[in-house]
Amino acid sequence: MTIRELIAEQRTRMRSSNPAERLAAALLIPAELSRRLGVLSNLEIGQLLEDEVWSNLNLLAPESTICLVAADRLRRPTNGELSG
User: Fold this and answer.
1) What digits encode the pLDDT tens for the residues 25-47?
2) Considering Cα of 48, then 39, then 37, then 67, what sign does the dihedral take?
3) What are the two backbone dihedrals, phi and then psi, of residue 13, each rounded to the nearest 5 degrees?
């Protein structure tokens, strides 16, 4: 299961009427998501931030600007890291 599939699965389970599904969405899936996010590069995190977080924000809210700036910053190459 990909990170994007995990995100979709968590969103689906959060809306479930089944308490066990919501518990999985609140505890189990975030733990696995955190583990997988920990191995991503800044470039990959920045892209995921823009694709999955920014796209779900109110475009006129300050959070959308913060998200875009953070994504852009994370996508900048750092010392020893090639862009691409």
Assistant:
1) 999 999 999 999 999 999 999 99
2) negative
3) -70, -30
Tell me which residue has tokens 């997988």. Answer: 36
Q: Would you say residue 84 has pLDDT above 70?
A: no
Alpha-carbon distance 33 to 17, whole Å?
A: 22
Structure tokens at 49: 């931030």
Q: What six digits make up the tokens of 64?
A: 């959308």
Cα separation of 66 and 49, whole Å?
11
CB 43 within 8 A of CB 83: yes
Q: What is the pTM for the complete model shown?
A: 0.75
